[in-house]
């Protein structure tokens, strides 16, 4: 047999899905595993949204839709952008896709030529790195450490730009760190992008999960010139607990949007018609359940951070958004548990899962090898139990 393509062979599987798969395997064996791996809200999709999808099926909305999505959903996206961020878009600017991840993929497909560079702030979501490479692009990693709140500066961005730089990936709020850029920080970054005529790939999928009364600023709202350089990516998965419905969307200048729509038409086609109907109901309907879920996430975050920072050997910053905590485990490296060495984040994640039945994600593949990621999209009962298990695990660690 002839080999698969070199690009496909070089792509690594998602580390978050790999951890989740191992946790499910142990659970299937009867083990009491608690998983904090994948970024998936544990709430049910609100009833009104689910019923909209069911109603669409019952009404016969089961046929193909335009490649860019139904007119109703695209208009609903524009309406939500206007109400939330005073951003003016038309339906022709919107391309619906099978989740925000697919929207990122489509954006890179229409922007990146082989050899193009994409600046990627670290820590980053692991799929960004691999997707850039899928199109022959080169990720240029710019690291923002814990000492700077996991946020890169305009000076760092400027220093990373070369003649081959095509775009900057900006995930705000961030997965995996939960960091949020202030309006002033965003403006400084956007000015660098406009100066060098770079695209801003702005993944804002966690825009409604903001804590401590902080204000979220969409980068596209910083002026028409910035907006013209921005491909804004969002979706319904995190805000409305609709991960399995697989509906995301991108908003871009019409030429880019048309190219993305063409790409969809020759690949996946649009998401299921009934899923689009449910997404439209989510965006157009009351938003009170969004706030209810956000409030619960904030309570969970507060407990998790307080417990974690009270333990010896680990620690974390308090994230301002999303539903992740980055736990610093650098002080554990070189130490042992039951005679096995905690050599790196990958080994910590394996040992913690095997010995304490708690699944967390190593951030080695996120550009942050001294950390593991916890998702607090889990019940308070499971969070409390996991913190007890972490405390017991750390008590067994020896120098």
Care to describe what's here?
Strand 5 (165-171), helix 8 and strand 6 form a beta-alpha-beta unit. A 7-stranded mixed beta sheet has the order 2-8-7-6-5-3-4, with helices on both faces. The protein has a 4-stranded antiparallel beta sheet with strand order 9-10-15-14. A two-stranded parallel sheet has the order 1-13. Helix 4 (71-85) packs parallel to helix 11 and helix 12 runs parallel beside helix 14. The radius of gyration is 21 Å and the shape is globular. With 399 residues, it is α/β, with parallel strands linked by helices. The chain has 2 domains: 6-44 and 289-396, Aspartate Aminotransferase, domain 1 (Alpha-Beta Complex), CATH 3.90.1150; 63-285, Type I PLP-dependent aspartate aminotransferase-like (Major domain) (Aspartate Aminotransferase, domain 2). The chain is 42% helix and 15% strand. The chain is built from 14 helices and 15 strands.
What name does CATH use for the topology of the largest domain?
Aspartate Aminotransferase, domain 2
Going by CATH, the architecture of the largest domain would be: 3-Layer(aba) Sandwich
Shape: globular
CATH superfamily of the largest domain: Type I PLP-dependent aspartate aminotransferase-like (Major domain)
Alpha-carbon Rg, integer? 21 Å
Low-confidence stretches: none
- Terminal Cα span: 50 Å
Main sheet strand line-up: 2-8-7-6-5-3-4
The major beta sheet can be summarized as: 7 strands, mixed
What's the CATH C level of the largest domain? Answer: Alpha Beta
The helix-and-strand class reads alpha/beta
Structural domain tally: 2
Report the portion of residues in β strands: 15-25%
The count of helical stretches stands at 14
Order of helices and strands: HHEHHEHEHEHEHEHEEHHHEEEEHEEEH
Helix content: 40-55%
By DSSP, the count of extended strands is 15
Mean pLDDT: 95
């Amino acid at each position: 047999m002839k080999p698969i393509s070199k690009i496909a062979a070089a792509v690594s599987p998602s580390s978050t899905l790999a951890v989740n798969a191992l946790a499910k395997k142990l659970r299937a064996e009867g083990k009491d595993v608690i998983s904090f791996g994948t970024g998936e809200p544990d709430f049910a999709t609100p009833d009104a949204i689910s019923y909209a999808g069911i109603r669409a099926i019952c009404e016969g909305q089961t046929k193909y839709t335009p490649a860019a999505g139904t007119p109703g959903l695209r208009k609903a996206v524009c309406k939500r952008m206007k109400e939330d961020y005073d951003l003016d878009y038309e339906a022709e600017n919107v391309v619906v896709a099978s989740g925000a991840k697919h929207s990122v993929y489509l954006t890179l497909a229409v922007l990146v030529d082989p050899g193009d560079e994409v600046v990627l702030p670290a820590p980053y979501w692991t799929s960004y790195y691999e997707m850039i490479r899928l199109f022959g692009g080169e990720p240029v990693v710019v690291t923002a450490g814990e000492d700077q709140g996991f946020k890169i500066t305009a000076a760092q961005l400027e220093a990373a730009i070369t003649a081959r730089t095509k775009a900057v990936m900006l995930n705000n709020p961030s997965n995996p760190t939960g960091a949020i850029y202030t309006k002033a920080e965003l403006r400084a970054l956007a000015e660098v992008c406009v100066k060098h005529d770079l695209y801003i790939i702005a993944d804002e999928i966690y825009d409604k999960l903001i804590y401590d009364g902080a204000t979220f600023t969409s980068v596209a709202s910083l002026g028409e010139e910035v907006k013209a350089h921005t491909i804004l990516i969002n979706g319904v998965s995190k805000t409305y607990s609709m991960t399995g419905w697989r509906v995301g969307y991108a908003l871009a200048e019409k030429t880019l949007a048309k190219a993305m729509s063409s790409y969809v038409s020759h690949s996946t086609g649009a998401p299921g018609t009934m899923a689009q109907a449910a997404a439209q109901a989510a965006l157009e309907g009351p938003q009170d359940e969004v706030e209810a879920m956000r409030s619960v996430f904030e309570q969970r975050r507060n407990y998790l951070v307080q417990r974690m920072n009270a333990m010896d050997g680990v620690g974390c910053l308090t994230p301002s958004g999303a539903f992740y905590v980055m736990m610093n485990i650098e002080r554990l490296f070189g130490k042992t548990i039951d005679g096995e060495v905690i050599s790196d984040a990958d080994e910590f994640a394996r040992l913690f899962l095997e010995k304490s039945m708690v699944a967390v994600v190593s951030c080695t593949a996120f550009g942050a090898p001294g950390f593991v990621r916890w998702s607090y999209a889990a019940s308070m009962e499971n969070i409390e139990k996991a913190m007890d298990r972490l405390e017991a695990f750390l008590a067994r660690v020896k120098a």
